[in-house]
Amino acid sequence: MTGKIKDIGRIISLLKKEVKDFETPVGTEIGESTRDAFQVLVSCILSLRTKDTTTGPISHKLFAVAKTPEQIAKMPLKKLQEIVRPVNYYKTKAERIKVIAKQLVKDYNSKVPSNFEELMEFKGVGRKTANIVMVYGHFSKDHIPVDIHVHRFPNRMGWIKTKHPDQTEEELKKILPKKYWQAFNDLIVTHGQNICLPINPHCSKCFIKKYCKKAGVKKNR
Ligand code: SF4
After folding, report:
1. Do 41 and 16 share a structural domain?
2. Same domain, 19 and 30
3. Does the beta carbon of 203 sit less than 6 angstroms from any atom of ligand 1?
4. Fewer CB near the terminus (10 Å): N or C of the chain?
5. Mean local confidence (pLDDT), 34-56
6. What are 151-194's pLDDT values in tens digits?
7. What is the Cα gyration radius of the chain?
8. Could you tell me if 49 and 99 lie in one domain?
9. Domain-located, residue 99
10. CB neighbourhood size of 196 (10 A)
11. Residue 221 lies in a domain
12. pLDDT computed for residue 31 by the predictor
């Protein structure tokens, strides 16, 4: 059951126009520049509760030294922590990345699985990260990564009324035509980082304002 959003084709094409001059979110950028699921997975773990402006350069700095599961598995933990230090919770994230790298080498022939359920079994990998790896690392058309921007946007638009990103993912899959799933995260994250800000969004500059109910928006500019 898909295709229940009125004017969705028009909305998507307006959003594409709106975001074309903004910076690409880190997930897409790493996916496009590396075409490598392991690097997408690592940068996604680094990005949790950290701004893209920090995650992007730190991911590239790490990948310049080590970019395969074998290389990261061999790297001393202290060195890994030192490189990723600017991201929030760097100690825990470095530990998790190292455990995952070792697991991949040992049990997965150093390849990141392209199966959503298998990805979810890795410690520190939740639905959002698994969906990001599927879309940006394995180029899946069957997944929608839902972060805070992708959760907030359809609620503000008045398409859905959900409290939790997992619910949003479920509801979006019912109402968003499948041909838009793969590109949706990138588009909405860019829109959310630049226009539909968490507080005081730039509704006057928004290309799709006439389609939006602004549900829950108390103040805008
Ligand atoms: S009109 Fe405002 S709340 Fe609605 S999508 Fe645009 S920026 Fe977001």
Report:
1. no
2. no
3. yes
4. N
5. 93
6. 999 999 999 999 999 999 999 999 999 999 999 999 999 999 99
7. 18
8. yes
9. yes
10. 25
11. no
12. 80
